[in-house]
Specification:
about 425 residues; alpha/beta; Rossmann fold; GMP Synthetase, Chain A, domain 3; 2 domains; 9-stranded mixed sheet; 12 helices; binds adenosine-5'-diphosphate; binds zinc ion
Amino acid sequence: MFWDEKIECLSRDEIVSKKEKLLRETVRYAYKNVAFYRDQFDARDMDPGQIRSIDDISSLPFTTKLDLRDNYPYGFCAVPLSRIVRVHASSGTTGKPTPVFFTKSDMENWTISMARNCYMVGIREKDVCQIAFRYTLFTGAFGHHLGADSIGATVIPTSSGQTERQIMMMQDFGTTVIHCTPSYAITIAERMREMGIHKGDLSLRLGIHGAEPMSEELRGEIEERLGITALRDYGMTELGGPGTSIECPEKNGYHINEDFFHPEIIDPDTCKPLPNGQTGELVFTTLQKEAMPLIRYRSRDITHLETETCGCGRTLIRHGPIIGRSDDMLIIGGVNFFPSQLECVMLGFEEIEPHYVIYLKKKGRLDHVSVAVETHPDFWANAPGEKIAELVQKIETKVKNDIGFRMQIKIVEPLTIPRSEGKAQRVVDER
Ligand code: ADP
Ligand code: ZN
């Protein structure tokens, strides 16, 4: 039932003592091999030997994405280039890409964490896994590939895009597991509908979806349209990609691979640690990285930690759903909200399809939010104008009640919102 029972089911005391040993080693190692950390410690008159217990971590400085950018390209690399066997990087849409480096041992640990995660969601040797994350500098596809491969499943590295061919391969090769972003899962389901292929024509039973938020409502849509169980996967380039955490089939939070990553939740404004259960920013310290150890790396992702035991039997701590990134949070008229909250409200209406874009504009000095969203093609084809106006009215009222301010909802013609093959672009800021 477990890939690594001796790690996944340890008692809290055992895991804490294991993590303390790894933390002491990591801090000493980072001090010795990364000038950035040596400078940070020296500036605070700190000796790595002062860090003994997990609680001592709160005295350590944070690392941010800006620190990584300032030290581009090799500043955070703790080993000579001859020991680096792989480089990946995030998109870098706002500047240089953020790279991450792997030694042979980092690759082995990445494989272990992904094998554990793929096994946790239920992948076995007999499965046929279609990896429809993009095979590029991004980590996603490669991480899932390593995990499924290590279990001995059949791996089909289709990458994302060429959706019709993707669907044909699912049919022809009897794909049982699809690995892709949640928005691409919806794109696939929609194309199946257009091609007249029914979910019963496929052997799919499981979807693993990451790289962007998937609300419960969107999960429901994906499960229904593809006839699968859809589970969430989390990670980020800086930490080495997927492998940080994943939901088990209990669907009550993502188990964190705590022997590789120590999590904390902080208040993003004061940077003070928050107790388990409270919502704030997720911060990770890597515990076994050779090429790029990171101390208290600020993920900017908002969630909480859960400590009650999970029905699956694993004791690894869990984090809740990622509500969004702190830098994706929109503040409109003094109210904070994340696009994923709007998704929950809109998908509560059965006429609405999961294709929407939020437009932010300035009207005078005030922010104005409008949302373009599609309905089900049958509804669009058969509903008279007043039915559409009535639906708009209902959605606007629900949004105002649930989120706290008015947004203008515009129902647009089916298939006019661009479809996603990777991370969906949900917000257009024209302010
Ligand atoms: P980029 O910074 O270019 O988007 P990454 O591909 O490294 O690069 O993206 C990592 C980010 O993707 C995470 O920090 C998080 O915001 C988002 N993400 C990844 N998995 C999930 C998930 N399961 N739910 C919500 N957001 C996720
Ligand atoms: Zn579990």
